[in-house]
Amino acid sequence: MAIVVGTDLTKTYNGLRAVDNINFSIERTECFGFLGPNGAGKTTVMKMISCRSPVGSGDIVVNNMSVKTDARKIKSVIGVATQEDNLDRDLTIFENLAIYSRYFDISKGVAKKRIDKLLGFFDLTSKRDTRVDELSGGMKRKLIVARALVNDPEILILDEPTTGLDPQARRQIWDTVIRLKSEGKTIILTTHYMDEAEELCDRLALMFDGKILEYGSPKELIEKIIGTNVCELYAPDKESANEISKTIPGSIEQVGSRLYIYGNDANVLRRMCEAATSAKHSVRRATLEDVFLKLTGRGLK
């Protein structure tokens, strides 16, 4: 059953169409991802879902409520972890969470119990009285997510939650998302990291220039558009790329000095590439990065 539905959704800023007539639905308790490069329209969609930016045309229904008429009620069932670090640096972890709880008219007693639980969940109990300025980047990101959960929302929105984090901190955020999903939260995630989307998302919308190019599970999108394997082959110039392309049948994409040959059988791909050229090549499993390359001719992170 869908908990969020976007219909014919459009948003324009100063003549620029940031979101271009898109449709999507997000099921209850799933992790749904909006994937794409900077400027694709991901954050704009998130802002409209969370009622932080008005819908241009079309509509978004959240838990059977329209963002056009029920913004206040929708905000009460949504938690938003922003991409920006907007914590109060002069306050402690506990103080940041306690002050935020007042926006939702949560009593001090209930807020304290809820904050203590969140600090334990995010392994921040020992840092309870530490000022934000003294926290690592990973701890700040966990605190931002914890803050988004103070009102015990049904839906958690995470806008590029791991940007700028080291690999260990990224994995900690991933583990947090998986745990929250297992507890029944619906999670809406934006990211431009391919591995993050494949690891966390049940389904996703692949966005580019304000449009949804493709829509489905990571596995479905990879198999539908690419196949299961890719041969990545180096071609130093346009002439050699053209010559190699003439000798290899099937689906080929050229990006810069590399050719990408798609298929399902790794051994067949390897033999084709070896027969076509002595240039360096490798065969690997297909990823969402390859899907994006195929659809747009450019890469993501």
How would you describe what is shown here?
- It comes from Methanooceanicella nereidis.
- Keywords: ATP-binding, Cell membrane, Membrane, Nucleotide-binding, Translocase, Transport.
- Residues 4-234 form the ABC transporter domain.
- Belongs to the ABC transporter superfamily.
- The protein is an alpha/beta fold and 301 residues long.
- It has three domains: 1-77 and 155-165 and 182-215, P-loop containing nucleotide triphosphate hydrolases (Rossmann fold, 3-Layer(aba) Sandwich); 85-152, no CATH class; 227-285, Alpha-Beta Plaits (2-Layer Sandwich).
- The chain is built from eleven helices and 14 strands.
- The protein has helices spanning 42-49, 71-76, 93-102, 108-121, 137-148, 167-182, 194-200, 218-225, 238-247, 266-276, 288-296, and strands at 2-13, 16-27, 31-35, 57-62, 65-66, 78-81, 155-159, 186-191, 203-208, 211-216, 229-234, 252-255, 258-263, 281-285.
- The protein has a six-stranded mixed sheet with strand order 6-7-8-3-9-10, with helices on both faces. A four-stranded antiparallel sheet has the order 2-1-4-5. A four-stranded antiparallel sheet has the order 12-13-11-14, sandwiched between helices.
- It is elongated.
